Amino acid sequence: MMEPDNLIDAVLQRYAAAVHAKDVEAFAALYAADVRVFDLWGEWACEGIAAWRAMAESWFGSLGDERVVVTFDSVRTMVAGDMALVHGFVTYQGVARDGTPLRAMHNRMTQGLRRRDGAWKVVHEHTSSPVDLATGKALLSH
Amino acid sequence: MMEPDNLIDAVLQRYAAAVHAKDVEAFAALYAADVRVFDLWGEWACEGIAAWRAMAESWFGSLGDERVVVTFDSVRTMVAGDMALVHGFVTYQGVARDGTPLRAMHNRMTQGLRRRDGAWKVVHEHTSSPVDLATGKALLSH
Prior knowledge:
By secondary structure, the first copy, chain A, is an alpha+beta fold. Helix content of chain A is 25%, strand content 44%. Chain A has a six-stranded mixed beta sheet with strand order 2-1-6-5-4-3, covered by helices on one side. The radius of gyration of chain A is 15 Å and the shape is globular. Chain A starts with a helix and ends in a 14-residue tail after the last strand.
């Protein structure tokens, strides 16, 4: 059984590295073929790695020469056998080519993982921001 | 090990029953003392059963003589040892005292569960709706 801290390293750090590198293959490799994602934006669910890979291609392609620095905080992990649950807060910080910080967005993130043949893969991911009751708008900064 | 179908019965059906009955005690009994909820509304996180129970009291108390019928669909469950992950879509259908359907709201829901002393408890819950990119508003109906 992988220890929780190592699991966080293996998945969250690789997530951050793949996003920073805008590396679609490295990003897609974190997820199981039958992944179901409840993403913050637009769609109720994204089913399967092909659709999720297409999201990453579109996201990374939209960034031009900007990059996104992903950081996590208040992460909690629970592991039992070949299954794990991770939840915490994530910050997506846009950075210009010259290093200037641009807009930042905060999310909550939950991931469910499964280990097959020794490799941990995300089988379910849920990202969101809380919604303001008065305006119906998502609060993207805390 | 509880079978996935029974787990869904045990947790989701009791969730629906507690909400329909507006029974704060039955609702709170579904959750672990150290539960962390990423709820759709207002707050980034709700930490611990006392805060989550207060949410339920406020919610149920706001309903007057209306009730809420909760239904789930496309639910997937994964169980390993004393841990489980459940994710799917949930509909909250308001019903007037005379049975007339009122407003309805759709959410995505993810739950992480842990079994201690034979009892399954929700240790993490994440509910949300996707956000429309153009307006920044949550889509509460699909």
